[in-house]
Amino acid sequence: MEENNLLRGKQKRYLRAQAHSLRPIFSVGKNGLTQVWLDQLTGALEKRELIKINLQQSAEATVAETKTFIETNTDIQVVQTIGRVLVLYRPATAAENQRFSPVVEEM
C-alpha cells in the first residue's frame, strides 16, 4: 500500500460516522482468511466503498490478525474496529460507485 494514501484523522472520523448505520455484510468464520475472501471484500468495496465485516465466534483469526491480513494483502484500509466488527474503506475506481471518496479526498 502506498503510504501517502493513508487516511488522516479527519477522514477516518467522517468514514466512521458514515459507517455507523451500516450492518456487517461479510464475516470471518472457521474458513478463515483466504485470497478468495479478500477478492470478495474488494468486489464489495468497489460497489460500496465502505463496509463492515464481523468475526464470528468460530473464527480462528483475531481482530488484529484480520486487520493485518487485509491491510497487508490489499489496498483496503481498516477505518475502525469495534469489538469483533471492522469498518473497511477502499475508494471505488468507477465514478458511479464513488459515494464517499470524493468527500474524503476534499478533506
Structure description:
The protein has 107 residues and is α+β, with helices and mostly antiparallel strands. The protein has a single domain, classed as YhbY-like (Translation Initiation Factor IF3, 2-Layer Sandwich). Helix content is 39%, strand content 21%. It contains 4 helices and 4 strands; from the N terminus they run H-E-H-E-H-E-E-H. A 4-stranded mixed β-sheet has the order 1-2-4-3, with helices on both faces. Helix 2 links the parallel strand 1 and strand 2.
Note the gap between the termini: 20 Å
Strand content: 15-25%
Q: Average pLDDT value?
A: 93
Pick out the low-confidence regions: none
Determine the fraction of residues in helical runs and give it as a percent range.
25-40%
Return the string of H and E elements: HEHEHEEH
Give the CA-based shape: globular
Quick summary:
With 107 residues, the chain is of the alpha+beta class. The chain has 4 helices and 4 strands; from the N terminus they run αβαβαββα.
